[in-house]
Write a structure and sequence with these properties.
4 strands, about 10% strand, about 160 residues, two-stranded antiparallel ribbon, elongated
């Protein structure tokens, strides 16, 4: 015994019941009753008609089993070494007292400034003669030149 499903309502159609409609493009529709066929012919949406299976599914009606929501797994924190620092070094730095860390940072900043100062005098001696020419050109370019008035209107 083969059971069909109604194209509109979604109910089972037992042998010897219902109607089959074949459209010009070859699609077949099986309807349980004239009520379902009429609703289909009137182009009614089965999701908006309360007695259809599609409506009941859409609006979550008649579900006997209260399915427990799937529990989401919490992400676990995981620590890895970073390029240039092993995990042990990172953990040691984290466990340091803030004042010790601040002192190390200040010392590193001082060392960087001293290194910059050491390279700066050598570079500034070479740039000094060129600097006077640059200053003269800047003085010449400092003239106030009137800009042309903005054009009014669209493309010409």
């Amino acid at each position: 015994m083969k059971l069909e499903l109604c194209s509109f309502s979604g109910y089972k159609i037992y042998p010897g019941h219902g109607r089959t409609m074949v459209k010009a493009d070859g699609k077949t529709y099986k309807f349980l009753s004239s009520k379902t066929q009429r609703a289909h012919d009137l182009k009614r949406n089965p999701r908006k008609i309360t007695w259809t299976v599609l409506y009941r599914r859409k609006h979550k009606k008649g579900i006997e089993e209260d399915v427990a929501k799937k529990r989401t797994r919490k992400t676990q924190k995981f620590q890895r070494a970073v390029v240039g620092a092993s995990l042990n070094e990172i953990l040691a730095k984290r466990n340091q007292k803030p004042d010790v860390r601040k002192a190390q940072r200040e010392q590193a900043i001082r060392a960087a400034k001293e290194a910059k100062k050491a390279t700066k005098p050598a570079a500034s001696k070479k740039a000094a003669p060129k600097d006077s020419k640059a200053q003269k050109s800047q003085q010449k370019a400092a003239k106030n030149v009137m800009k042309a008035a903005p054009r009014v209107g669209g493309k010409r």
